[in-house]
Q: What sequence folds into this?
């Protein structure tokens, strides 16, 4: 069964954009800057089987669902992408809210990991995949190990993971370099077809 969600590559009015990249590259920071500067952008709220933490609001921070509900979403094809995180709880992007946002003509941004981006590529081949890259390897290493909270073995594991993740860049339609958060956010908004403040009427 096909699930049409957005127009083709030339359709800028209702386009799904997927943002992914290596660990510690700053996806959440850039995504937050885009939301702050362009509140018209619709950003997906993930579903999860983990219980809410203090202060978290259902439908705002996450859609909190039972494992049985999550099973039903997966079985019915209602998940665009999903994964098990830390071997315990599942997280995923619900198809329905994305479809509704596109139907309303809203620019849609999905912030996911690399595995999620690959799943969305299969489910929505018309989506625009944006790879968020560090300015250079040394900067990513600094971000990964700069906290000083991991031992040498954990740092080595994270760096090996980052190398694998960086190698996925050719799978994406376009790369945005996160050398400066506001600049990267502005470039992402431009790729989504959203004019900058100076271009608005």
A:
């Amino acid at each position: 069964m096909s699930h049409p969600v957005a127009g083709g590559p030339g359709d800028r009015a209702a386009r799904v954009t997927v943002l992914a990249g290596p660990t510690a590259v700053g996806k959440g920071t850039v995504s937050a800057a885009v939301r702050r500067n362009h509140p018209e952008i619709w950003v997906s709220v993930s579903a999860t089987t983990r219980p809410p933490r203090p202060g978290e609001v259902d439908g705002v921070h996450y859609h909190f669902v039972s494992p049985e509900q999550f099973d039903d979403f997966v079985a019915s094809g209602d998940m665009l992408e999903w994964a098990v995180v830390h071997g315990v709880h599942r997280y995923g992007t619900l198809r329905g809210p994305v479809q509704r946002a596109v139907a309303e003509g809203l620019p849609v941004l999905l912030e996911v990991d690399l595995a999620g981006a690959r799943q969305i590529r299969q489910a929505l081949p018309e989506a625009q995949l944006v790879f968020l890259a560090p300015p250079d390897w040394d900067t990513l290493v600094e971000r990964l190990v700069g906290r000083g909270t991991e031992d040498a073995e954990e740092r080595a594991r994270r760096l090996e993971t980052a190398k694998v993740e960086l190698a996925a860049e050719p799978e994406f339609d376009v790369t945005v370099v996160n050398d400066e958060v506001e600049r990267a956010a502005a470039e992402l908004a431009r790729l989504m077809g959203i004019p900058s403040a100076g271009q608005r009427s």
User: Anything to note?
Assistant: Confidence is low (pLDDT under 50) at residues 1-14. The CA atoms of residues 50 and 87 lie 12 Å apart. Residues 45-105 form a domain with the Guanylate Kinase phosphate binding domain fold (CATH 3.30.63.10).
